[in-house]
Amino acid sequence: MCERAYQYVLTHATPGDPDSILEAFDVWCSKVEFISNIGPKKGKILDRLLMEQSPLTVLELGAHCGYSTVRIARSLPLGARLYSIEMDQRNAAIAEKIIRLAGFDDDTLIVNPSDEVIPRLRSDYNLERLDFVFMDHWKKCYLPDLQTLEGSGLLGKGSMILADNVLFPGAPKFLRHLRRSGLYQWKIHRATLEYSKGIRDGMAELVYQGVK
Looking at the whole model, is its pTM more than 0.90? Predict the structure, then answer.
């Protein structure tokens, strides 16, 4: 799936132009083959939050084919670091090519399951704080990964987490934790599923308040 999208992007996008690469992806995903990228509509919410927050350390859980990685990287301030985790080796190989095609050579792509990487971010990558986390991997991993982040000490007051597809296919345990934990100010950005018109979905925006 990612390989076919990559071949299309390679022949229809301009190397070094992130906007052109995202547009080619969007054409492929809306007209030829559905891929669960964040897509252009929900992508604009991600863009806006990144511009408002200007995060210097960003963690992406689920790089998939590299679409959201490019979308995040193009919105970051100078000197920011993006760490993207993708457990599927084939997808990661394509994501790496897409990221490089867009001209982002400094971003770190980590090919391993998120539950193995998150506990090692501090020791392996000298990370002390995450300003922004984007979740778009397996929905069943949302809650355990969030709890691992909470216990890691990497979330500081004001750290933002944006989680896609919390309504469809849905992450009910994750949403229940948000309501009950008291650790976050949070809201749902309602939208439709990427590249579709009728399926209702949404993204959860969380701002970490720290342990009370």
Answer: yes
